[in-house]
Specification:
With about 350 residues, the chain is an alpha/beta fold. The chain has 13 helices and 8 strands. The chain has 2 domains: about 60 residues, no CATH class; about 270 residues, Zn peptidases (Aminopeptidase, 3-Layer(aba) Sandwich).
Amino acid sequence: MNRVAITVAGIGDAGFANLRGADRDHRSRLQRRWPAFSFLLRLRRSALAPFVVLFVVLTLSAESPGAPQAKIWEEFSGEKALAHVQRLVDLGPRPPGSGAIEKSRDYIENQLRLSGWQVTRQAFTDDTPRGKVQFLNLIARFPGQRSTGPSFLLCSHYDTKTFDTIRFVGANDGGSSTGLLLELGRVLGRHPNLAAKIELVFFDGEEAYEHFSEHDGLYGSRYFARQLGGSGAKQFRGGILFDMVGNRSLKITLPADSPAEMARDVFASAEALKLRSHFTYLDREMIDDHMPLNEIGIPTIDVIDFSFPWWHTAEDTMDKLSAQSLQIVGSVAAYYLSEFALK
């Protein structure tokens, strides 16, 4: 309870008697500003008066334009994000076209809907080194009164790489970013005005079957970008791709070709939360799902920790991750969205 509310709630009959003797012009201004003021005066002898006053003052305080805005970065839970990762990893390897990836889709959709998002399935078939494969992107929007639609993308891939010789569950590569994006969806869902500006995209087929090339890998993001085309891309002023963000020894390495202004603001967000030591630049460019988005004119930054030594090995398992790392990335992302991207 704030100090003003406590003070007003404690005013008794004597206090209201003093109010009668106050300057009439001052009181008339109060009555014009707060129509409820005269009502409160009439209730001054009622036993309920202190409670009514408290209710009105708290309501006025909440609606005041000067009231502090919610710090959404404080609402993000690394523990909740990690729990999502665990649920996905429990399904086992999740390569495109598998039964496990279909179960992961159901889980992702259900969690998004619980947070208030509407989910669309974007299905397509593409040629791969292993023949034609069916892929499916998940696209989520928040219902609201915003006529112009969302203006910022938050993305992750949710598939795991296809291996014939190892059991690859992709706890960090595919799992961590998906868990983080689900938790961001929950947090944003509590702030509909912000959520309405966001489109969440979960890409299928990020991993290459053989080697990344124009015809192998990034299947989901390439298809998504083609469907947007030039005109559709114009509605988005930017985007963030999350990938491999759960490493216990976290070191986010923004690729060298990151949009300069976005990188500056991400670093500033980390600095504001005293987390700057976890963010640096990679000494080279990165082939990832942000590339097709940048190519169609949507400035998109790849938030990735490419210092992960278990990348594409059977050792990419839950014990390599921590809730604290997810907390760091999620908090910085939420701060960036609230204080920079969606301003």
